[in-house]
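Dear U.,

Please find below the material for section 3 of the report. The protein was modelled together with MTE; I have listed the sequence and SMILES used, followed by the predicted complex structure.
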Amino acid sequence: MLIKTPAPHEPHPSEITPHRVYLNRRTTLAALGLAAASPLALAQPTAAGGGKLAKLPGARSAVAGAMVLDKPTSYADATSYNNFYEFGTDKADPAQRAHTLKPRPWTVAVEGECAKPGNYDIDALMKLAAMEERIYRLRCVEGWSMVIPWVGYSLSELIKRAEPTGKAKFVEFTTLADRAQMPGLRSGVLDWPYVEALRMDEAMHPLALLTFGMYGEVLPNQNGAPVRVVLPWKYGFKSAKSIVRIRFVEKQPRSSWEQSAPQEYGFYSNVNPNVAHPRWSQASERRIGEDGLFAKKRPTLMFNGYEAQVGQLYAGMDLRKFF
Ligand SMILES: Nc1nc2c(c(=O)[nH]1)N[C@H]1C(S)=C(S)[C@@H](COP(=O)(O)O)O[C@H]1N2
Ligand SMILES: [Mo]
């Protein structure tokens, strides 16, 4: 007897909604005025995740510029080609070694120049504001880029609750640095812990995302579980992973990359095709997943394509000096 097993790409018959049921559901939703705005409809991730991690849906973001139309990078590429030096400097290291990271229990300390400091348990932090899906371009200073559907909420939601004082001019992010969980700390490539920082107005910009998931699921360890920031108009290294401390400070902090090579990495690190890095031109980029033999490089856009949204933050600044 022959039993037909569906090919992996074929939906199982039980997954196919009968047409009549589908139409009925649409009619009911339409009658309720929910056809487009249904949280169920909105919470469908844009691109498929790996299916192994907990689901983390987010509603389509309404923030200007939050949903780029570029085709998302495959989950396989986004989770196997990573920079996370705490697990090694090779692009394949984080996917192979980050299983030792323990994303629970996890606490994020919010401290410094603010009226309401506190230690947030990760699960409480995740409930602070509504989760949104945002499709951002991520441009690494090394000359490649990806398009990732992240899940999180604007960092400003957390900052507002902390009530920064008038002295708070910058926000500093510190990554976990635990030798027991992170084998890369044995190397001296960077001065651990990994520290990054933003000016307060940059951190308050609605596009600055406190990120808990991607592709409709919680973050894989190699992408910065359980919480990271994503700053789409800046080079990827500003988007610190696996954050344990957020501190409000008066003086401009020195990031780990500035510390290691001040002539190569400035504080701002806004994506800028007109200012070359000493080792890499920033004029164009290779989109991961499109890098076949004949694939064309894409021109890199000012502020990674987010100029309309963030350009005002830097009005009047000499971007060659403040690179
Ligand atoms: N803690 C920490 N955060 C980090 C890094 C790192 O090495 N350590 N690498 C950065 C760099 S260079 C890039 S390009 C992005 C990559 O994020 P992704 O792996 O999720 O694509 O993470 C950034 N955040
Ligand atoms: Mo990067």
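For the text of the report, you could mention the following: The first strand starts at residue 59 and ends at 60.

Regards,
Y.
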